[in-house]
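If you are new to this repository, start here. Below is one unmodified record pulled from the training split, so you can see the exact layout before writing a loader.
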Amino acid sequence: MQKSITAEHKERIRVAIKNKQDISGLISGYDIRNLDLSYAIISQIDVSNQDISNVNFSYAIIGMGSQIVHFNSVLANNCNFCGTMFNSNVMMRRGTFNSCNFNNAFLPYADYKFARFTNCNFCDMVFRIGADSGIGAVFDSSFFGALDKYWNVKIVSKSYDEQYKSMED
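And here is the target side for that same chain:
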């Protein structure tokens, strides 16, 4: 069980972000739901199997070098990753990302096998698409809409409901 963050602890986090200090130790083991971590430096984070809904990670720098960032089986509703730089490998397996903003995010080294991305915005995002990285991942049809519309490529896939049902089998 994650510890609750007090107002005093939130203030320490805010000051550390303002002073461009790594906040990894300040958030480890804490419930970070609803926090504003915009512009934060987070060299290490493991939020696997946690609810991190409504966290603002905009313009944060997450990960460092060979450190692996863990978002496995995370529940991320309404998170803001706008402009976030993921500077290391990111494990996102079986994560649920709903209504998240990934505009201008930099996420080139992600393993998102069986993750679900629904109602997310990916405008101008750097994101590797590949079978090794994302086997079984589910995106709503709008994710590939721009490719189908502007690249003269026909995208054919199962509907979201069909894909989700087949993942459960």
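Two things worth knowing about this chain: Residues 111 and 133 are 5 Å apart (CA to CA). The first strand starts at residue 41 and ends at 42.
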